[in-house]
Amino acid sequence: MCMFQMGIVLVGGVYFAATGRISLGTLVVFITYEGFLLWPIRQMGRILSDMGKTQVSLGRIGEILKEDLEENDGKLKPEIKGNIEFEDVYFSYDDNKPVLNGISFRIKAGETVAILGPTGSGKSTLVQLLARLYDYSKGSIRIDGIEITDIDKKWLRRQVGLILQEPFLFARSIKENIKLANMEADDSKVYEAANMAAIHDVITSFDQGYDTLVGERGVSLSGGQKQRVAIARTLIRDCPILIFDDSLSAVDTETDAAIQKELRERKDNATTIIISHRITTLARADRILVLDKGRIVQSGSHEELIRQPGLYRRIWNIQSSLERDLEYM
Ligand SMILES: Nc1ncnc2c1ncn2[C@@H]1O[C@H](COP(=O)(O)OP(=O)(O)OP(=O)(O)O)[C@@H](O)[C@H]1O
């Protein structure tokens, strides 16, 4: 029972006892039994709300298991260069609320495109369609000219490296966490990926180096360090298409710049899509798409977008004036 409820019961109870309407014994028994009753009722409320979450999670696990059993016979397994084309793509999670409303754009193999947009504008949904986590209802998405629904789903997902904002690390060593995506990779490949993700020096500063355990029994990594381990885990797969879904947000600006430089200088330059709210990250991309309510409302290079009114210029003004203020502090 919270202090407030306890206070009301006590004040009321003492008043009734003092005016002789109830005995002191009745008051004590009432408070005791109320305490017994309240806790199970609260627990019941929690169980009911957890049951709702369990139902949704069970449904999703079922979908994943079903997908694994799906036949992919006859689907293509092409070698992918990384040319991406969205043509008039529509998508909604449920029929009433459209999330993407006619998205069209092209990315050439090896290009870096950044996406900016208010929360809920459909950025994550757009990149998840590319990895076929969901299927679009109308329009066409092509990779190297092939409709992605004609490509074997597992094959496609191996070519598209999607790094999420809150990556999951297992309670294993850092090396095992990086190698997870490519068990055949040797140590030099692990170090190369960690270097590109700007996390090698942090790892080697630990007493156990790459054998350091992550999680409760080992080191607790910061949000930015976890993101960089997850980036290394994706880079070790050598995917021709890389997607950073706000996954550079917890990394400081300089490290972010270092990672982007490494990616650009990679031998086989991957097609890269970066979702970010940080203007310095966006500015380094070859092209920026601005999304609003499931539509592309602006598209161009940093120089082009700061010359026209719109969300990009507003964010640029706010973030640059903040940086100037910080310099003077
Ligand atoms: N699995 C889902 N089921 C139902 N609706 C969803 C699901 N995922 C996202 N949405 C809804 O779709 C819309 C677009 O979401 P999305 O995550 O793509 O936006 P976003 O631009 O990436 O936002 P943020 O910047 O906050 O990550 C939102 O209204 C969101 O509530």
UniProtKB/TrEMBL annotation:
One of its GO terms (molecular function) is ATP hydrolysis activity. SUPFAM superfamilies: ABC transporter transmembrane region, P-loop containing nucleoside triphosphate hydrolases. Residues 84-318 form the ABC transporter domain. It holds the Pfam family ABC_tran. Residues 1-53 form the ABC transmembrane type-1 domain. Its main location: membrane. It is a multi-pass membrane protein. It comes from the Bacteria. Keywords: ATP-binding, Cell membrane, Membrane, Nucleotide-binding, Transmembrane, Transmembrane helix, Transport. The chain crosses the membrane at residues 6-39. SMART domains: AAA (SM00382). It is found in: Cell membrane. PROSITE patterns: ABC_TM1F, ABC_TRANSPORTER_1, ABC_TRANSPORTER_2. One of its GO terms (cellular component) is plasma membrane. Gene3D superfamilies: ABC transporter type 1, transmembrane domain, P-loop containing nucleotide triphosphate hydrolases. InterPro entries: AAA+_ATPase, ABC1_TM_dom, ABC1_TM_sf, ABC_transporter-like_ATP-bd, ABC_transporter-like_CS, P-loop_NTPase, Type_1_exporter. This is ABC transporter related. It comes from Halothermothrix orenii (strain H 168 / OCM 544 / DSM 9562). The lineage of its organism: Bacteria, Bacillati, Bacillota, Clostridia, Halanaerobiales.
